[in-house]
TrEMBL record, chain A:
Transmembrane intervals: 17-39, 51-76, 82-105, 146-168, 188-207
Family to which the UniProt record says this protein belongs: Belongs to the binding-protein-dependent transport system permease family.
Designated name of the protein: ABC-type methionine transport system, permease component
Pfam families reported in the protein's UniProt record: BPD_transp_1
PROSITE patterns named in the record: ABC_TM1
Annotated localization: Cell membrane
Entry membrane topology: Multi-pass membrane protein
Source species taxonomy: Bacteria, Pseudomonadati, Pseudomonadota, Alphaproteobacteria, Hyphomicrobiales
InterPro entries in the cross-refs: AA_ABC_Transporter_Permease, MetI-like, MetI-like_sf
UniProtKB/TrEMBL annotation, chain B:
PROSITE patterns: ABC_TRANSPORTER_1, ABC_TRANSPORTER_2
Family per record: Belongs to the ABC transporter superfamily.
Pfam families, sorted: ABC_tran (PF00005), NIL (PF09383)
Organism: Chelatococcus sambhunathii
Alphabetically ordered keywords of this record: Amino-acid transport, ATP-binding, Cell membrane, Membrane, Nucleotide-binding, Translocase, Transport
Residue intervals of the ABC transporter domain: 26-267
Official protein name in the record: ABC-type methionine transport system, ATPase component
Length: 221, 370
């Protein structure tokens, strides 16, 4: 493999990591409050707001049901508005974040719903406000589940990031398509796949280990 | 003078309130609670016509089967449930009329322990006990000063850094009790606190609650489905059945002279009250010539500890055949039940019953055996 190609792979890996990590961070920033709200706002729940819950749930479902490649193209005006351009690695972060936010919100909702209702009751009996219950009970207790959810989100985003090549987003997937497939360079394709496998494996085992360490429900964690 | 419950307020004010009313830290007045009908279910009347007073520094138990409304009743005290009618007065405040904000500060003066402990798995023992103080905005130094002696009190000083998953059920409930005491509450609510524990652990937790009641003077309102819990620590008891209090009063009176069928059925499981199986199998309603009359004698009052049966034998010359029974103490007073056989010879039974009645012992003829 020529040094030229090795440099390309290195650059693509950096681009992928940059896009995925920034999109995950932003997706968590928006998805965490959204997910917690979805998990606590049905009728009779802690932040009971059934109409808003229904409306947000619909938007989340609508975003999640749009195939990612269509989403990327459909929101180009929005991307241009936010990033100043619709082309390039930084611009690709916008559709990735838009896709990641509802996904992360649903994963966090699921994790928060796993928290025993008895803990909410106990906190209410102590005189906790709804926000204190969220901050001191729900999020800390759901943390192992949230970490596993974010791990899943990162792995999914690594897959999504291959698609943003269509808007010049760069990254490993893009390199694989342009060099490996279109220029028929199987060694590039193979390298891209190997790097992706290593990335996904690494992220998953890191996430698993962190979640295990955070999970105090297991005696020997 | 006739006492009129509906007398005008001016007339009421002239009558000094009874000690019980005066000193009640929790008072239910005509409380009802129903849950509205839903698409799939009819309206549920969980509680109706509840009048109950919990004297300051006492231990009051509410006993009932599952579904009787006990959980709803105890949750009315800290406003986790709102009554549909009536007032729930805690230390002079009607909690039913408070908004969420005001309720939150009232709740800090009411501790609660739960059947399933409800400890945070992500927090250590120390941090679990500290949680109500954090919620109240207490500073770290005060929290440390408050939590450490509480861990000593419940005997978990050496477990402060452990997580709930590393503790036994009894230890978890000790953490729950320490946590409930952290804000120095006026009242402790116990929601089936021992129902998930084995008998030995139950006893140690009840001992701890009793100690807290005596040493801190803390009022305890507990709900349970076990008479043994009531007997171990309560001074007063209310029996709840289908959302109504069917009987309430002093624990000793209620145990020894139950009036309501529900109370009797709770007591049936208590040792010594039931007929032994070998007697129950052959007992008949009609007298058997030359057989025995089966009588239950309840020992309470001043003669409870007297050798009454041997007196029957010695003074009346009647043989007494003991078939079953148990002697115990309730709320610190001796109490026993004996099931005996008396000869069916036409005179012995009446003489013996009269003798026992003179000594203020309750008797009941249960039937006849050969």
């Amino acid at each position: 493999m020529s040094p030229e190609i090795a440099r390309l792979i290195l650059q693509a890996t950096a681009d992928t990591l940059y896009m995925v990590l920034v999109a995950t961070a932003l997706g968590t920033l928006f998805g965490l409050p959204l997910g917690v709200f979805l998990a606590t706002s049905r009728r009779g729940e802690l932040l009971s707001a059934p109409w808003l819950n229904g409306a947000l749930g619909f938007i989340v479902n609508a975003t999640r049901s749009t195939p990612f490649i269509i989403l990327v193209v459909a929101i180009i005006p929005f991307t241009r508005l936010v990033a100043g351009t619709s082309i390039g690695t930084t611009a690709a972060i916008v559709p990735l974040t838009v896709a990641a936010t509802p996904f992360i919100a649903r994963l966090i909702e699921a994790a928060v719903r796993e928290v025993d209702q008895g803990l909410i009751e106990a906190a209410r009996a102590m005189g906790a406000s709804p926000l204190q219950i969220v901050a001191k009970v729900l999020v800390p207790e759901a943390l192992p589940g949230i970490v596993l959810g974010l791990t899943l989100a990162i792995v999914s985003l690594i897959g999504y990031s291959a698609i943003v090549g269509v808007v010049g987003g760069g990254g490993l997937g893009d390199l694989g398509i342009r060099y490996g497939y279109q220029r028929f360079m199987p060694e590039v394709m193979a390298s891209v796949v190997i790097v992706l496998i290593v990335l996904v494996q690494g992220v998953q085992s890191l996430g698993d280990r962190l979640a295990l360490r955070l999970n105090k429900r297991l005696r020997h964690a | 003078m006739t006492v009129n419950a509906h007398a005008p307020i001016t007339a009421d004010a002239a009558i000094p309130p009874s000690d019980e009313t005066e000193d009640a830290i929790i008072r239910f007045e005509g409380v009802a609670k129903s849950f509205p009908a839903r698409k799939s279910s009819a309206a549920v009347h969980a509680l109706a016509g509840i009048d109950l007073a919990v004297p300051r520094s006492s231990v009051v138990g509410v006993i009932g089967r599952s579904g009787a409304g006990k959980s709803t009743l105890i949750r009315l005290v800290n406003g986790l449930e709102k009554p549909t009618a009536g007032r729930v007065i805690v230390d002079g405040t009607d909690v039913a009329g408070l908004g969420e904000g005001a309720l939150r500060s009232v709740r800090r003066s009411i501790g609660m322990v739960f059947q399933h402990f409800n400890l945070l798995s992500s927090r250590t023992v120390f941090d679990n006990v500290a949680l109500p103080l954090e919620i109240a905005g207490t500073d770290a130094a005060t929290i440390k000063a408050r939590v450490t002696p509480l861990l000593d009190l419940v005997g978990l000083a050496d477990k402060r850094g452990r997580y709930p998953a590393e503790l036994s059920g009894g230890q978890k409930q000790r953490v729950g009790i320490a946590r409930a005491l952290a804000t120095q509450p006026k009242v402790l609510l116990s929601d089936e606190a021992t129902s998930a524990l084995d008998p030995e652990t139950t006893r140690s937790i009840l001992d701890l609650l009793g100690t807290i009641n005596r040493e801190l003077g803390l009022t305890i309102l507990l709900i349970t489905h076990e008479m043994a819990v009531i007997r171990a620590i309560a001074q007063r008891v209310a029996v709840l059945d289908a959302g109504r209090i069917v009987e309430q009063g002093d624990v000793f009176d209620l145990f020894t002279r139950p009036q309501h069928e529900t109370t009797r059925s709770f007591l049936a499981a208590e040792s010594g009250r039931e007929l032994p199986a070998f007697v129950a199998d052959q007992i008949r309603d009609e007298p058997i010539p030359g057989g025995q009359v089966v009588v239950r004698i309840v020992f309470r009052g001043p003669f409870a500890t007297h050798p009454v049966l041997s007196q029957v034998t010695r003074e009346l010359g009647i043989d007494v055949n003991i078939l079953g029974g148990a002697v115990d103490s309730i709320a610190g007073r001796p109490f026993g039940t004996l099931i005996v056989g008396l000869p069916n010879d036409g005179t012995s039974l009446d003489k013996a019953l009269a003798f026992l009645k003179e000594r203020d012992l309750d008797t009941e003829v249960l039937g006849h055996v050969a």
